[in-house]
């Protein structure tokens, strides 16, 4: 009898241990996961273009908001200094995982916790930023997706030269508050030297600085402009596109949003798709995977979008070889 009771106790202990594991909890239909999201903008409607694909990706994996997942949103209105405070709020509210919309958000959260999983939805070079040890083996509690922006800046310069063969002076617009900007700008400056182009870096920390920045670009007597990937610049893209049009300045961007709003050409990763893909990282981690074991995903597809209406307004003839490569041509 004692042996039977002993065996029963052992079985119960094993069962309780199994139920307490992350893998078992993820299968428990009664479990409601809390996903904290560190947004760089001011409010959810502003970020809906990214949250929509992420929540759809989560639904495709079986997560229904209000049933087995709750999204806890925090916003910094492009004031990156607030990321640490907002991250602490999420930690205090005991979320299960943090989704960082940009690298700066992941860096801030990473300072506060080495145990809570952090997934980056967009980042230029997480290795150079010190967020992960390597792309293949991140280590620690951070992983996610890279936008490959540093290398893209060189491609943007090459595209500009293809469109404007005689270009020799190019403005590079960036946001100094973005930690990815330093890495991307360094790559752009090196690429410019290799292409025998004089690069003129200009920075805006917010739209309130646009007027001075636009004046500096005009006085620099440049023949074209590159706009580095940045959330603040993207959100405030309309005045940037308007300036480029009024100044008759051929400009290359990363996200296609700019071209939809009248920009000339965009070449880069689909940011909404990155957010959709980040759902798979959240899912794997909630099911027990360690962030440090999940390789950082690099883009497998870059999209080239050209606005022919803008090209005509700038009296530019887009090479047929470039048009043939384009994933989308807006007329």
Structure, explained:
The protein is an alpha/beta fold. It folds into two domains: 21-147 and 272-293, Response regulator (Rossmann fold, 3-Layer(aba) Sandwich); 149-268 and 302-330, 3-Layer(aba) Sandwich (Rossmann fold). 45% of the residues lie in helices and 17% in strands. It is built from 14 helices and twelve strands. The protein has helices spanning 2-20, 22-27, 44-60, 83-92, 103-112, 149-163, 179-194, 210-219, 231-235, 237-246, 257-260, 271-286, 308-313, 320-325, and strands spanning 33-39, 69-75, 97-100, 118-120, 142-144, 169-174, 198-203, 224-227, 251-253, 265-268, 303-307, 328-330. The strands form two sheets. The chain has a seven-stranded mixed β-sheet, sandwiched between helices. It has a five-stranded parallel β-sheet with strand order 2-1-3-4-5, with helices on both faces. Helix 3 packs across helix 12 (271-286), helix 4 (83-92) packs across helix 5 (103-112) and helix 6 (149-163) crosses helix 7 (179-194). The longest helix is centred in the N-terminal third of the chain and has 19 residues, at 2-20. The N and C termini lie far apart (84 Å). The relative contact order is 0.13. Residues 1-26 have low confidence and may be disordered.
């Amino acid at each position: 009898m004692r042996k039977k009771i002993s065996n029963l106790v052992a079985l119960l202990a094993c069962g309780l241990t199994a139920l307490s594991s992350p893998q078992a909890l993820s299968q428990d239909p009664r479990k409601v996961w809390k996903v904290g999201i560190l947004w760089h903008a001011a409010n959810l409607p502003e970020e809906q273009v990214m949250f929509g694909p992420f929540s759809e990706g989560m639904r495709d994996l079986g997560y229904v908001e209000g049933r087995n997942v709750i999204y806890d949103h925090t916003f910094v209105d492009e004031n990156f200094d607030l990321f640490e405070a907002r991250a602490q709020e999420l930690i205090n509210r005991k979320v299960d995982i943090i989704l960082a919309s940009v690298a700066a958000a992941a860096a801030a959260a990473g300072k506060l916790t080495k145990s809570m999983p952090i997934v980056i939805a967009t980042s230029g070079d997480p290795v150079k930023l010190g967020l992960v040890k390597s792309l293949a083996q991140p280590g620690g509690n951070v992983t996610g997706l890279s936008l490959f922006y540093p290398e893209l800046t060189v491609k943007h310069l090459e595209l500009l030269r293809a469109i404007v063969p005689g270009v020799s002076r190019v403005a590079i617009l960036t946001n100094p508050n973005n930690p990815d900007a330093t890495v991307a700008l360094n790559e752009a400056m090196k690429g410019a030297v290799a292409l025998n182009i004089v690069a003129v870096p200009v920075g805006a920390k917010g739209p309130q600085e646009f007027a001075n920045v636009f004046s500096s670009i005009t006085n620099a007597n440049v023949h074209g402009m590159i706009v580095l990937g940045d959330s603040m610049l993207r959100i405030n893209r309309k005045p940037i596109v308007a300036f480029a049009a009024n100044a008759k300045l051929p400009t290359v961007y990363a996200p296609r949003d700019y071209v939809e709003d009248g920009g000339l050409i965009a070449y880069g990763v689909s940011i909404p798709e990155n957010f959709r893909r980040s759902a798979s990282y959240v899912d794997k981690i909630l099911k027990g995977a360690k962030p440090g074991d999940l390789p950082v995903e690099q883009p497998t597809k870059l999209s080239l979008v050209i606005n022919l209406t803008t090209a005509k307004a700038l009296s530019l003839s887009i090479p047929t070889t470039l048009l043939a490569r384009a994933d989308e041509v807006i007329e």
